[in-house]
Protein backbone atom coordinates (compact mmCIF):
# COMPACT_ATOMS: atom_id res chain seq x y z
CA UNK A 1 0.00 0.00 0.00
CA UNK A 2 1.21 3.47 -0.81
CA UNK A 3 0.10 7.02 0.01
CA UNK A 4 -2.68 7.88 2.44
CA UNK A 5 -5.41 5.43 3.41
CA UNK A 6 -8.56 7.34 4.36
CA UNK A 7 -12.27 6.58 4.61
CA UNK A 8 -12.69 7.67 0.98
CA UNK A 9 -11.01 4.41 -0.06
CA UNK A 10 -13.11 2.15 2.18
CA UNK A 11 -15.33 0.80 -0.62
CA UNK A 12 -12.29 -0.09 -2.75
CA UNK A 13 -10.46 -1.64 0.20
CA UNK A 14 -13.54 -3.61 1.23
CA UNK A 15 -13.99 -4.90 -2.34
CA UNK A 16 -10.33 -5.91 -2.58
CA UNK A 17 -10.46 -7.74 0.76
CA UNK A 18 -13.76 -9.40 -0.14
CA UNK A 19 -12.12 -10.80 -3.27
CA UNK A 20 -9.49 -12.65 -1.21
CA UNK A 21 -10.42 -16.34 -1.23
CA UNK A 22 -11.14 -18.04 2.11
CA UNK A 23 -8.14 -19.71 3.71
CA UNK A 24 -5.55 -17.55 1.93
CA UNK A 25 -2.59 -16.05 3.77
CA UNK A 26 -2.52 -12.39 2.73
CA UNK A 27 0.68 -10.38 3.22
CA UNK A 28 0.28 -6.58 3.23
CA UNK A 29 3.24 -4.22 2.82
CA UNK A 30 2.97 -0.73 4.33
CA UNK A 31 6.41 0.63 3.38
CA UNK A 32 4.92 3.33 1.14
CA UNK A 33 1.97 4.16 3.39
CA UNK A 34 2.25 7.63 4.91
CA UNK A 35 -1.05 7.70 6.84
CA UNK A 36 -4.01 5.50 7.76
CA UNK A 37 -7.18 6.76 9.37
CA UNK A 38 -9.35 5.04 11.98
CA UNK A 39 -11.89 3.74 9.45
CA UNK A 40 -9.26 1.93 7.35
CA UNK A 41 -7.50 0.58 10.43
CA UNK A 42 -10.82 -0.75 11.78
CA UNK A 43 -11.61 -2.35 8.42
CA UNK A 44 -8.31 -4.26 8.44
CA UNK A 45 -8.72 -5.38 12.05
CA UNK A 46 -12.30 -6.58 11.50
CA UNK A 47 -11.48 -8.29 8.20
CA UNK A 48 -8.54 -10.07 9.86
CA UNK A 49 -10.85 -11.57 12.49
CA UNK A 50 -13.41 -12.67 9.89
CA UNK A 51 -10.75 -14.10 7.57
CA UNK A 52 -9.09 -16.11 10.34
CA UNK A 53 -12.39 -17.98 10.83
CA UNK A 54 -11.97 -19.33 7.27
CA UNK A 55 -8.49 -20.63 8.08
CA UNK A 56 -6.78 -17.66 6.44
CA UNK A 57 -4.41 -15.11 7.88
CA UNK A 58 -3.50 -11.45 7.47
CA UNK A 59 0.23 -10.86 7.82
CA UNK A 60 1.36 -7.28 8.33
CA UNK A 61 3.43 -5.14 10.65
CA UNK A 62 0.77 -3.91 13.09
CA UNK A 63 3.30 -1.71 14.95
CA UNK A 64 4.19 0.20 11.78
CA UNK A 65 0.53 0.47 10.88
CA UNK A 66 -0.40 1.91 14.28
CA UNK A 67 2.51 4.37 14.00
CA UNK A 68 1.10 5.58 10.66
CA UNK A 69 -2.24 6.06 12.43
CA UNK A 70 -0.91 7.92 15.48
CA UNK A 71 2.02 9.97 14.18
CA UNK A 72 1.68 10.67 10.48
CA UNK A 73 -0.51 13.22 8.78
CA UNK A 74 -2.18 12.64 5.43
CA UNK A 75 -0.37 13.89 2.35
CA UNK A 76 -2.58 15.59 -0.22
CA UNK A 77 -3.73 13.67 -3.33
CA UNK A 78 -1.63 10.54 -3.03
CA UNK A 79 -2.55 7.19 -4.48
CA UNK A 80 -3.10 4.13 -2.36
CA UNK A 81 -2.36 0.81 -4.05
CA UNK A 82 -3.71 -2.50 -2.83
CA UNK A 83 -2.05 -5.53 -4.41
CA UNK A 84 -3.00 -9.14 -4.11
CA UNK A 85 -0.26 -11.49 -5.27
CA UNK A 86 -2.60 -14.43 -5.73
CA UNK A 87 -3.70 -14.70 -9.36
CA UNK A 88 -7.33 -14.17 -10.27
CA UNK A 89 -9.40 -16.42 -12.58
CA UNK A 90 -7.49 -15.40 -15.72
CA UNK A 91 -4.11 -16.07 -14.06
CA UNK A 92 -3.14 -12.41 -13.57
CA UNK A 93 -2.43 -10.70 -10.26
CA UNK A 94 -5.02 -8.21 -9.07
CA UNK A 95 -4.22 -4.58 -8.32
CA UNK A 96 -6.55 -1.81 -7.23
CA UNK A 97 -5.76 1.88 -7.14
CA UNK A 98 -7.68 4.78 -5.72
CA UNK A 99 -6.99 8.46 -5.11
CA UNK A 100 -6.70 9.34 -1.46
Automatic annotation (TrEMBL):
<protein>
    <submittedName>
        <fullName>STAS domain-containing protein</fullName>
    </submittedName>
</protein>
<feature type="region of interest" description="Disordered">
    <location>
        <begin position="80"/>
        <end position="100"/>
    </location>
</feature>
<dbReference type="Pfam" id="PF13466">
    <property type="entry name" value="STAS_2"/>
</dbReference>
<feature type="domain" description="MlaB-like STAS">
    <location>
        <begin position="13"/>
        <end position="58"/>
    </location>
</feature>
<dbReference type="InterPro" id="IPR058548">
    <property type="entry name" value="MlaB-like_STAS"/>
</dbReference>
Amino acid sequence: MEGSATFILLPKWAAALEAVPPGVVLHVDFKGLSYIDHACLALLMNWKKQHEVTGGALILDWETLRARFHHARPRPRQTCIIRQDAPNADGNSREQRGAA
